[in-house]
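Human: We require from you a standard protein entry with sequence in single-letter code and fold as tokens, and nothing else.

Assistant:
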Amino acid sequence: MRCALVSALQDGPHDLPGAADAPNVSRRVLIVDDDPLTVRTVRRVLNSAGHVTSELTSGFGFAVALRSFSPDVVLLDVNMPGLGGAGALKSAREMDICGPRILLHSGLGDAELQELTERLSADGFVRKPASSQELLAAVEPAA
């Protein structure tokens, strides 16, 4: 059962900054964000670098997506209507679902995001709007 999970179609390479420097390692990235433009932009950048993406438009279905899609990395919007990122992460942890790197994704200031990252025991954060290089650096493993 995939709930609100929508699998992205692989678009193929695009002329995006950083796409030529794409790693040989493909990551499965779950994008959780209520803003369609953000989802579309992030998906395009990540797919062009060879990563596989799926999306959720709210925190509802997050635990199901973690199990069914098995992402390596999650870009989790903090402020969403209904069940936001913090609530979705808390629910998944209460169900003892763990595994992927969790990166908070928000337009909050660095100090606020750092505090929230620590409080939620997330693995890091990416500020919105992020450049292609920032997104790829956050998602890809350190060499």
